[in-house]
Amino acid sequence: MSPQGNNNILWSRTGLDVLANQDITISFYAYNLQVDGTPGREPEVLVELVDASGTVINSMATTAIDKNNNADDWHLREVTFNPGANTVAGVLLRTNLDSDDGNFLVLDDIQAIQTPEICEKTQDVTVVVESGKTFEVAILGSTDPTCNGSDNGNIRFEVTNFDSAFGYQYSIDGGTTWVTETTSPITTSSTLADGTYNVMVEKNRRQYVH
Length: 210
What we know:
Blueprint: E1 9-17, E2 24-35, E3 45-51, E4 56-61, E5 67-68, E6 75-81, E7 88-95, E8 105-114, E9 136-143, E10 154-160, E11 168-171, E12 179-181, E13 186-187, E14 200-203
Parallel strand pairs: 2-5
Antiparallel strand pairs: 1-7, 2-6, 2-8, 3-4, 3-7, 9-10, 10-13, 11-12, 11-14
């Protein structure tokens, strides 16, 4: 491309769907066809982000594109704009050097990239249990072994707000052994020796057959 004058359009693309209020990074590679050491000024590129009507939302001139030293002397330029509330936008690349020498540029790999908002992987959820619906356990009493060294004691407790179709399970040996029940109150088997027991109770998980 070699348009003379300032503010001429080098490249444009309009009618782009964008996410409102999410930054857009516009990038491209530029190659100056003028060889280093030859006469002429080094051009800039004016990057514009416009709305659906063509009104400029944001604009910025890149740094000058140096004259080339070899065939691979490409220069990356990029700017970042925010489209605001707009959901449709356009990108224009213009000359930004008023020179009789022209703007001898080749542009390639022009991109406008917008990263969508990333949803949080976790979220705190507050669960409020209605009054009278809490899964609860209450110890009603116990029976001591009949004699020293005997193991015929038991514990009686009550469970409320469980699904009678699936029941609950309890353990009195620290979770090693679990016993399933569907009624309440319940009395453990009379096999307990003298000692302290921690009654662990949890709802049975529903099981579905597919």
